Amino acid sequence: MKVAALQMVSSTLPADNLARARALLADAALQGAELAVLPEYFCLLGHRDTDKLAVQEAFGAGPLQSFLADVARELRMWIVGGTLPLSTGNPASTGARVFNSSLAFAPDGRCIVRYDKMHLFRFDSGTEQFDETRVLQPGDRPALFALPSRDGHIWRIGMSVCYDLRFPELYRHYAGQGADVLLVPSAFTHTTGQAHWELLLRARAVENLAWVVAPAQGGLHENGRRTWGHSMIVDPWGQVHGPCPQGEAVLIADLDAQRVAQCRAQLPALEHRRL
Asked: Residue 180 belongs to what domain range?
């Protein structure tokens, strides 16, 4: 299956971001991608964390979800919409927090799975501070979906987002459910990305003998934030396809199901687990 990891440098203007996402998705479709994955916060990297609240949508309705459904239908392609802010549905929160949600759309425009980011990022180096709990509500369950590719293989795909990458138990859960592809749409900071991004992605691929598809935000954003980029696709043996250092990019790779089977047969680590 041909897969595209789309790298963006999203701005504070959702309309501009959707236009850029549309162009990248069209490029991926022209290159034959069956699945294209957008990065975290593809629709908005605001001036403030609270800017997410102004564009939140109820699950199943809203311009951001309509955009993803319409483009999937038009391009006849599976699309995973990085993340977008979905309302919690909790009246007590009065919209003060949202889920950071990743949605997968089938080529007929149906949303077939939703994953709410489970692990929320907090970092304080003295000069950089981030705390996603100020505006985000954590999800409480993993999400996996089946994707029948054109050659008839049924791919089992595990969903995750950015900071989830530091919690290997989530990906081991997916491997236990038969996942052969792990998605990690991200917006890693330049500091943490430079230190850990490739290391963690390759570890998750090798541990679980699965493909890892990791599209990222990459560059200096309008709001002054600098993200690491280096979108990549990693095979089950840890070989890296890419990376795309900075700026917009469409990274294409052919995911081979036999590669998963070969790696799992020659090193059956998943069968050797004791805990």
From this structure: 2-271
